[in-house]
Amino acid sequence: MSVGSAAQPAAGAKAAGDGSRLFLFYQSPVGKKAVMAVTGLIGFGFVIGHMLGNLQIFLGPEVMNAYGMKLHETPPLLYGARTVLLGAVALHIIAALQLIKMNSDARPTKYAKVSPVTSSYASRTMWWSGPILGFFIVYHLLHFTLGAAHPNFLYQDAARHIPAPYENVVAGFSNPLVSLFYIIAMILLMLHINHGAWSLFQSLGLNHPRYTPLIRTVARTASYALLIGNCAIPLAVLAGVVK
Ligand code: HEM
């Protein structure tokens, strides 16, 4: 039996064709922006879910630590989410760096002045909020996941290396400088998401008269909710409401 013919190519040849078409698409600025949009959406979904999980701190140590335990006792969920998230963050950064390089290669001379009309405050902060958020994530993992940057990291099950998130968050945020850094990072996250949602439609040409403004409003509201929800945790610890 023939595997493929001129009229009907083999499945392998079709897959290879799709793969190279995808690769060619990624070579273009629109392809890289599409990758940034999809990976940004994955990150956005994570931070919303993560905040909802972390807000359980207001329900007390039993609830918060039981939630942490459940996550660590469900390896497919934990490692699946970690793999997708790590891949998404890596691709988001790689595509951003390649876009910066493409833009600077295409620009013969540097702009004499940045026009405030064409670039919003959030869009100008995009390129420095990104690297600071990258630094925040590395610090955050060393702080609350690995404990290397934490003064008093506790495990609820030391034998299985399962951290005690309630105690670790309370002890971590008792330091006002650490809380301040988190709050600054949350403001940058809000700006980053706000502009990300704006540029997603702009750069991919996905403008719909009714749905685009609606989706942007939803994204903006979600970015403010993230700011308020995430900042509530260090502020509550500093105020002694959560202890
Ligand atoms: C006040 C805000 C936040 C608090 C209280 C918080 C708390 C925590 C805690 C306790 C853990 C460790 C969970 C465990 O292993 O048991 C963790 C992990 C993590 N957090 Fe946060 N977080 C906050 C904001 C963020 C933000 C804004 C991001 C991303 C931009 C983020 C990204 C992560 C990641 C990637 C992990 C590792 C997840 C894993 O173990 O696979 N967090 N966070």
What characteristics describe this protein?
243 residues; mainly alpha; 2% strand; disordered N terminus; globular; two-stranded antiparallel ribbon; binds protoporphyrin IX containing FE; 3 helical TM bundles of succinate and fumarate reductases
SSE order and pairing:
Layout: H1 11-27, H2 29-54, H3 61-72, H4 75-106, H5 121-145, E1 155-157, E2 162-163, H6 165-173, H7 176-204, H8 211-238
Antiparallel strand pairs: 1-2
Helix pairs in contact: 1-2, 2-4, 2-7, 2-8, 5-7, 7-8
The protein binds protoporphyrin IX containing FE (HEM).
Protoporphyrin IX containing FE binds near residues 189 and 234.
Describe the structure.
With 243 residues, the protein is mostly helical. It has a single domain, classed as Fumarate reductase/succinate dehydrogenase, transmembrane subunit (3 helical TM bundles of succinate and fumarate reductases). The protein contains eight helices and two strands. It has helices at 11-27, 29-54, 61-72, 75-106, 121-145, 165-173, 176-204, 211-238, and strands at 155-157, 162-163. A two-stranded antiparallel sheet has the order 1-2. Helix 2 (29-54) runs antiparallel to helix 4, helix 2 packs antiparallel against helix 7 and helix 7 packs antiparallel against helix 8 (211-238). The radius of gyration is 22 Å and the shape is globular. The structure holds protoporphyrin IX containing FE.
